[in-house]
Write a structure and sequence with these properties.
The chain has about 190 residues and is mostly helical. The protein contains 8 helices and 4 strands, in the order αααββββααααα.
């Protein structure tokens, strides 16, 4: 019973968006197979039907008929194919709203209760590990293209350094034959 009270206290501390999400799409982790689902009104109590195993020998799970707690509830974060028409239905939540819900759930420590989404932390880490950074030049033996001044910077600095090292020799040559007396190394 302590865990039940902890769940209630946690639900009261969640933001309203997360509370509404979990009310509409309850996580299967909270609806365990051996704990009966508490009904709040007599009409809901009439909808509780025992689900039996395939051999119909004993009752194993209590399910609420027509609720989203069923195992066949579609994931609201993924597109679904309509069984009759075969057409695809968009996800209930857009990628931006999925990311917002995941961020809120992560802040409140309930991210693992959300259904699978590509915006989840585990999926993002898996993709990062699988694909890497995907920035050109971060691999072995690759160079980042960069701007023209960035690509030529090393060469220019090296030419400037060489010119500074040869400066005393050039000054001496200028003194000997400068001012139009055979000087050919005018700067460009």
């Amino acid at each position: 019973m302590a865990t039940h009270l902890q769940h209630i206290k946690l639900a009261q501390s969640l933001p309203s968006r997360l509370t509404r999400f979990f009310a509409r799409y309850p996580p299967p982790a909270l609806i365990s197979s051996n704990v009966p689902i508490p009904a709040t009104s007599p009409s809901e109590a009439a909808n509780i039907v025992p689900n039996t195993t395939p051999d119909n020998s004993n009752i194993t799970v209590n399910q609420v008929v027509g609720s989203s707690a069923n195992s066949d509830t579609p994931n609201p974060f993924q597109s679904q194919r309509h069984p009759a028409t075969g057409r695809w239905h968009d996800p209930v939540f857009s990628l931006r709203r999925q990311a917002d819900l995941v961020k809120m759930a992560r802040q409140h420590g309930v991210e693992e209760l959300l259904p699978f989404t590509v915006k989840g932390t585990q999926e993002r880490l898996r993709r990062r590990e699988e694909n890497g950074l995907r920035v050109k030049g971060t691999g072995v033996g690759q160079k980042v293209k960069g701007k023209a001044w960035e690509r030529t910077l090393k060469g220019r600095l090296e030419r400037r350094r060489q010119a500074m090292l040869e400066m005393p020799k050039m000054i001496q040559t200028w003194k000997e034959r400068g001012h139009g007396r055979g000087w050919k190394k005018f700067p460009k």
